[in-house]
Design brief:
Length: 484
């Protein structure tokens, strides 16, 4: 079973999570506490929100660790299943539900109390408020009664990788995870229910986070909100159990959160049923490159509005065959070869794309030469998609260049989207031809691009180099709820 999480229909209202931290396995980005004090090793609860951005064999082990402590404390994704180890021989795993939705935020709770007489009550797993069955023990079992496990010991603890080294006192790059983490809570001494951390929205039925001010943390508990970019490892529980950062910078703070989920590149083609491709995605689902060989490959973003006006930016990597634009959802599946060997605008219904190398805009199998200059390395290409009026606009370093007098703020001289109709769903999209060229996109929630102006849309969402045109917005769930 492939599990979808809280995606484009995320519930908002009530308690808001403002920030997350982006972790990237390729950069060895993780957090650690080197010398914690012992807490209650029999009774505790972990709660965290995660948005995965890379699947499969992204590191040497094939396992992406969310948290580890000592030699045997483990919570990780292996073969896309969620797996928990209390200590050696006591694995409590679920191997029936795969968590592959890279557009979604998931909420996991691991609640432990080995004082319970019933073995199945000693470890409880939950996802999005629902019980996640422990259906495998890897040859082991539930913990014995009053067992003391690896967590809340004095051993080295890591978030985003596994402890390693001769004494398990360092991080191990072969187990790093890629994704976003938010509201990471560890409770010392209490086995809480998931309803202490989240609740079902009364209108939508979607699981959403709660304010944690009533949680009793215990002396070794910690609460990482990632809300201070100058101290992303700061503990907000009041205990001062702060974490040290490894290769994490202030720029790794994101506004992509469970209460305002931002669009990213769709990194798992199996979810969209469009066949395989040769694209690699990292940096929180905002960087992509063709892995090897030459030839066109088209890739899609993971939200598809049918109305509204939407904006994103893309940093040019110089004179190479890259295209940015949009495509109707039905255009992604109307040929037998899926997205391989096609570029945006190659045929009718296959969207529209601006090609960086020659400024051509392709649509319906033909093209016209866009105004302005060719993008050079470091230039910012802007895309403004107007689904209320069926138009698209392209800009370069804040000069709109479709046609003379092009201005998305006033709706003048935009390129009409061929085949557009009211309520038709469109996605941001791109096409790549050259291999091994890193391409960085800024959808507003996180970007590795160096941003000097930190402009937002008129609702205050997104962080861009240039202010979105009047009436255009970052593509995120709070804006979708209002305009999409």
């Amino acid at each position: 079973m492939i599990d979808a999480g809280i995606g484009a229909n995320s519930a908002s209202g009530g308690y808001d999570i403002d920030n997350s931290v982006k972790l990237e396995d390729a950069n060895n980005e993780w957090l650690y506490r080197a010398s914690p004090t012992a807490g209650n090793r029999r009774t505790y609860t972990f709660s965290f929100w995660i948005k995965r951005t890379e699947l499969g064999l992204v590191n040497g082990s094939g396992n992406q660790f969310v948290i580890g402590q000592g030699q045997h404390g483990r919570m990780y994704f292996g073969s896309e299943y969620f797996q928990y180890r209390f200590d050696d021989g006591h694995d409590c795993r679920n191997v029936s539900r795969q968590f592959r939705d890279t557009s979604a935020w998931y909420h996991f709770v691991v609640a432990v109390d080995t004082n319970e007489s019933s073995s199945s009550n000693r470890v409880k797993l939950y996802v999005n408020g629902e019980s996640l069955a422990v259906d495998d023990h890897d040859g082991g079992s539930f913990p014995d009664i009053q067992d003391q496990g690896a967590y809340f010991s004095t051993s080295y603890v890591t978030i985003g990788t596994a402890p390693f080294g001769g004494s398990y006192n360092a991080g191990d790059g072969s187990y790093d995870m890629s994704g976003y983490l938010a509201d990471f809570a560890a409770v010392d001494g209490t086995q809480y229910a998931p309803t202490d951390f989240g609740e079902f929205d009364s209108d939508s039925g979607i699981w959403k986070p709660k304010d944690l001010s009533d949680i009793t943390w215990g002396s070794e508990g910690y609460y990482l909100k990632f809300d201070d970019s100058s101290a992303l490892g700061a503990d907000s529980s009041g205990n001062g159990n702060n974490f040290t950062l490894n290769n994490i910078a202030a720029a790794d703070q994101a506004t992509d959160t469970p209460t305002n989920n931002f669009v990213t590149w769709l990194s798992d083609g199996t979810l969209f049923n469009v066949g395989s491709d040769n694209m690699l995605f990292n940096e929180g689902g905002t960087r992509m490159k063709r892995g090897g060989g030459t030839g066109w490959t088209t890739h899609y973003a993971n939200m598809a509005p049918s109305s509204g006006k939407w904006y994103f930016e893309h940093e040019s990597a110089g004179a190479n065959n890259t295209m940015m634009g949009a495509i109707p959802v039905e255009g992604t599946t109307n040929n037998s070869s899926g997205r391989n060997n096609h570029y945006l605008g190659v045929t009718a219904g296959k969207g529209v794309g601006f090609q960086f190398v020659d400024r051509n805009v392709y649509q319906n199998g033909s093209y016209y030469v866009n105004g302005g200059s060719n993008p050079n390395s470091g230039n910012i290409v802007q895309v403004a998609l107007d689904l209320d009026n069926g138009k698209i606009y392209y800009g370069l370093d804040n000069v709109w260049m479709n046609q003379t007098g092009s201005n998305p703020s006033t709706g003048s001289n935009g390129l009409s989207l061929a085949g557009w109709s009211s309520e038709q769903m469109w996605m941001f999209a791109g096409s790549s031809y050259n291999p091994n060229v890193n391409q960085s996109t800024n959808f507003g929630g996180y970007s590795e691009m160096s941003i000097s102006s930190a402009a937002s849309d008129s609702n205050g969402y997104g962080t861009f180099e240039y202010a979105p045109p009047t009436g255009f917005y970052a593509l995120c769930t709070k804006n979708l709820a209002e305009y999409g």
